[in-house]
Amino acid sequence: MEPSERVMAKLKAGCVCKGVKLIRLIEAIENGATTFEQVAATTGIGDGPCQGKRCGEKVAELLAQHRLG
Ligand code: FES
């Protein structure tokens, strides 16, 4: 991941409901999380009003990118 992408990820929302930035989700995956449940367990996302609908899609995308990268 480019440094500029990391800067943007510090500003972008990862989980809107819980106010968790995108960079936290990326770091969880970089630290070994391989499922939404594992990312949720370390970041506290997924149990907001949308019940992980929105952040679930982001995590799925990030996991796919991580597998390819
Ligand atoms: S965006 Fe994460 S629980 Fe709604």
What are the SSEs and their pairings?
Elements: H1 3-11, E1 13-15, E2 20-21, H2 22-30, H3 36-43, H4 53-68
Antiparallel strand pairs: 1-2
Helix pairs in contact: 1-2, 2-3, 2-4
| Radius of gyration from CA coordinates | 11 Å
Number of domains as seen in the coordinates: 1
Biggest sheet, open or closed, and with what strands and sense? 2 strands, antiparallel
Helicity, as a percent range:
55-70%
Oligomerization status of the protein chains = single chain
Associated small molecules = FE2/S2 (inorganic) cluster
Give the end-to-end Cα distance, rounded to a whole number of Å. 9 Å
Helix/strand class: mainly alpha
Helical stretch tally: 4
Number of strands: 2
Query: For the record, what CATH class applies?
Result: Mainly Alpha
Proportion of residues in extended strands: 5-15%
Provide the residue-averaged pLDDT: 96
| Widest beta sheet: strand line-up | 1-2
The name of the CATH architecture is Orthogonal Bundle
Outline type: globular
CATH topology: Arc Repressor Mutant, subunit A
Secondary-structure element string:
HEEHHH
Which spans have pLDDT < 50 for at least 5 consecutive residues? none
